[in-house]
Amino acid sequence: MQTIFTFKALPKIFGALSILLLLSSRISFAQTIIYQSNFNSGINGRTDASGVPIAWSTNVTVPPDGAPIATTYSSGSNSNFLGRFGHQIVTLHLSNLPKHDSVTISFDYYAIGSWDGNDPMSGPDIWGFRFDEGDTLINSTFANMYTSPGQTYPQRYDPANIINNPMKTGSELNDALGISSFGDAIYHFTFVVPDQSDTMSLNFISDNTWSGGDDIREDETWGIDSIIVSFPNCYSSLSEQTAVMVQSGCQAVDTFIHLEKTCGQVTLDSAWLDGSRAFLIPGTNTLPRPLAALDSIPLSYQSTQGPDTAYLHLRYDLGSGARDTAIMVIGRLASPFLAEPERLHREAASAYYGTIDTLPLAIDINSAVNLDSLWPYLTDISATYAWDSSIVSCVTYQPPPGWMLTSLLNRGDAVDFSIHNSGSTAAMPLALGTSLFQPASTTLQTSWVTLPNLAIRAGGQTLSLCVTYNEDNHWSVKTLGTSPSSVRVAGTPPSTQIEIYPNPVGNELFVRNPGVDVAAVTIYDALGRAVARASIAARVTATLGVHSISSGVYIARIICGSAASSHVIVKQ
Predict the structure, then answer these.
(1) pLDDT beyond 70 at 34
(2) Is 3 in contact with 137 (CB distance < 8 Å)?
């Protein structure tokens, strides 16, 4: 807030002297007058803005402290002013105001009688002006007495550092009212205050030592005259003073801060952020640019901590000079899962060309999440995992124990799946199931498997999780080159290789187990359902009947002792 001098014409006639005070102006656009009065036609005067209620009030109405709201005739000006007042607060309240982004307030302050300024015995005599409940724009001592050491105006009153300026410093006219034998001083003030409220209060405050009882004519009093309250016809405004952005997933959340203007040419010069670096303004390279009647500023928010706070500053020109405005922006995370990214739990699979291997899909949940407390409310998980399709291909996906597969889509280089909790137990790392991969070439290569999308549904809410990976925490599938002629269960020596044939198979599948442990063979369909099982004793070749299953691609899962492996079976 600052004092800005503008064109001012005093309509008072002091004797035969007509005075027109021209001061430097920074307001070059038209103003809408909300309230104006010289108090010659009553206290409330007039308003040019239809429907704006006007009310004057004061906190005290009786001597020796104050006086009621009334006007006083000045023989020197041959007109009325509002006052005289004493040790009291006088307030002008305006409501139902039209849209605006600033208000211009101008008035004359009359210091009448024995104002003692900084006199330590009779003073200090302080007078001030406050806009609404904000800063006090004037808070100074004023002096009309030659016996006073001086006054602080135009500086503010500070009891720890009293400044003694000559009496009546800054006044525009002295001893012209013809009211008190101690004289008077007339001061003119103009303020331009940023404001967008539909109500406002102008508070005129006096803290002096009036002790004249019922007769205040020969002590310090004061009055107000020639008051004008106006808004610029051209304004711009923000749609809100605080913007809240909620990040509900891994990706940045975007929004727009809306602006409105009511005049011709308004230029948005610059926009910048002060505060958290989680916020970003896209497209600032297009500034400066003209503002449309309804315009907006894009804003982006992406965080791994939250909450975050910043101020969006906008600098624009209404044709009367640059103005700055700011809006507080608050960003927060929708879920504690986003406070620290989850990590892939390191897992690896490897297979020869023509064979398959299983890749467990598991993630490490961040420490901010209590998985045991969450588990009773966890109902569903949806995710997408992806790989390099030129290196490996996904044969199928199997849900973890206690989960039921509800949807599955293999897109060639990614799998979308959804599973429903049907009685699982909380465990770390969080198991998402198993993917079966098969090499796509005979060369030695490795493909990392990523998890670009992961969402859980708990307590009726869907929460997106951000999952990261690095050299220490990742999923990978390695191709081992040309496959041996038989299917070897990983972890078993070559002399105990288990063979499955023929492939493709008709009605009977032969399984040869030359080892010393019993081999458990399970056939799964593409949805992860077991469609056939057999237990193959050591050192025997057994038959597994598959005549009842439909034609298609199946996975034969073999577990022999502590070793396990999988193989693709084609049913004709």
Answers:
(1) yes
(2) yes
| 323/200 Cα distance (integer angstroms) | 21
Residue 459: the pLDDT is 84
User: DSSP letters along 281-294, please?
Assistant: -TTGGG-SEEPPSE
Sign for the CA dihedral angle at 335, 341, 346, 348 comes to positive
**Chain segment 246-259, per-residue pLDDT in tens:** 887 777 888 887 77
pLDDT of residue 105: 94
Give, in order, the Cα–Cα distances in Å from 480 to each of 354, 443, 445, 471, 500: 10, 7, 8, 20, 20
Coil, strand or helix at 495: helix
3-state class (DSSP) for residue 153: coil
Taking the C-alpha atoms of residue 103 and residue 218, their distance in angstroms, rounded to an integer, is 36
- Dist CA 272 CA 324 (whole Å): 11
Q: What is the pLDDT of residues 466-477, one digit of tens each?
A: 788 888 889 999
Phi, psi of 301, rounded to the nearest 5 degrees: -140, 130
Cα 6 from Cα 36, distance rounded (Å): 16
Q: How far lies 481's CA from each of 44, 206, 359, 435, 436, in Å?
A: 95, 94, 18, 20, 17
One-letter amino acid at 527 equals L
Q: How far apart are CA 512 and CA 500, in angstroms?
A: 7
CA distances from 236 to 158, 193, 319 (A): 37, 14, 12
- Is the Cα torsion angle 552, 510, 439, 402 positive or negative in sign? positive
Query: In the structure, what pLDDT confidence band is assigned to residue 367 with cuts at 50, 70 and 90?
Result: confident
What percent of the chain has a predicted confidence (pLDDT) above 70? 83
First-to-final CA distance of the chain: 85
Cα–Cα distance between 353 and 134 in angstroms, integer?
Answer: 77
> In angstroms, rounded to a whole number, what is the distance separating the alpha carbons of residues 321 and 220?
41
